Amino acid sequence: xxxxxxxxxxxxxxxxxxxxxxxxxxxxxxxxxxxxxxxxxxxxxxxxxxxxxxxxxxxxxxxxxxxxxxxxxxxxxxxxxxxxxxxxxxxxxxxxxxxxxxxxxxxxxxxxxxxxxxxxxxxxxxxxxxxxxxxxxxxxxxxxxxxxxxxxxxxxxxxx
Length: 160
Ligand SMILES: [Zn+2]
Hints:
Layout: E1 10-11, H1 12-17, E2 21-26, H2 32-35, E3 45-55, E4 58-72, E5 79-94, H3 95-102, E6 108-111, E7 115-116, H4 118-129, H5 139-149
Parallel strand pairs: 5-6
Antiparallel strand pairs: 1-7, 2-3, 3-4, 4-5
Bound molecules: zinc ion.
Residues 73, 75-76, 78, 135-136, 138, 141 line the site of zinc ion (ZN).
């Protein structure tokens, strides 16, 4: 058996009702929208998802992802490994009415016809987690940015 990939779809009742869980390795072919934003295809993430049903007719998914992704630094334009450590919990809603009821208090995922497109929703979470302006940790890159900022009248008092 090879490396398991995240199921494309799961039956909501069974996944959450029976508290099923999956652990998988997610790579470029599983997450094409994410892959399109990354620099290179040599990456993978360890991902987990577990269904929960805290009470009748309430479906939740908790998930986690760990690894690093190749991003381009917005300061020095170098490609660097951006460490990702993500945990999330969402209420899965079916239909607009249910979505409207939950969306104020919880993060939600939308499912239709009791089928949850797990892989696609998981990819959504990863896209949300990406930094808008990725910055590498390279010392030269950081000090270069500090020099730019030194023309600022207000001296920064925070470290790093
Ligand atoms: Zn940089």
